[in-house]
Amino acid sequence: MLLQCAADFHGRQERYEKFLKVFEERQPEIVIIAGDFGRVDTKIFEEIDVPIYGIYGNMDGDLSYLKDAVNFIDGKKFSYKDLNFLGIGTKYPENIEGRIDIIVSHIPPYKTKDRAFFGMHIGSKWLRNFMEEREPSYIICGHVHEDAGYEKFGKTYVVNCSVGKKGIATLIDLEENRIEMIGY
Predict the structure, then answer these.
(1) 3 state SS of 144
(2) What is the mean pLDDT of residues 82-101?
(3) Closest CA to 57 of 109, 127, 115, 7
(4) Are residues 9 and 33 in contact, defined by beta-carbon separation less than 8 angstroms?
């Protein structure tokens, strides 16, 4: 299964247009946006004919105008084809039972792809503890524009797919465990 991910569009139409070109060329099965949508013309999402899952970022206000285009998963667990997803945007879920394969979070886990300017770690300690305890296969995040990229921590790939500084899209091939960062 191929996922296409990004975060931190901040309403910039040209970022969405580049992301859409990658979608058209690569035809992923799912699109994930890990927060900070910004104000966007909803027509961009009409071109995407696969499920779009998203979470709120720290800069997002009211995104209810996107409710027909995006499945918001803040604080929710859901399954898609034998994969268990957990969404963490503005809400940390409670009493999470069962296996979690993929976490979609706006903020990275503490000390993993969370190094901001001046080298400060600004990630979530809650998510770091959850990652260490539950060992999901992937954490898809953004927020820290300066630390886009990916690294493996134990059994978990932490993928910061922020397009805030540069970058167009991140593709994750779940069968091959391959991560491709386009435009970074």
Answers:
(1) coil
(2) 90
(3) 7
(4) yes
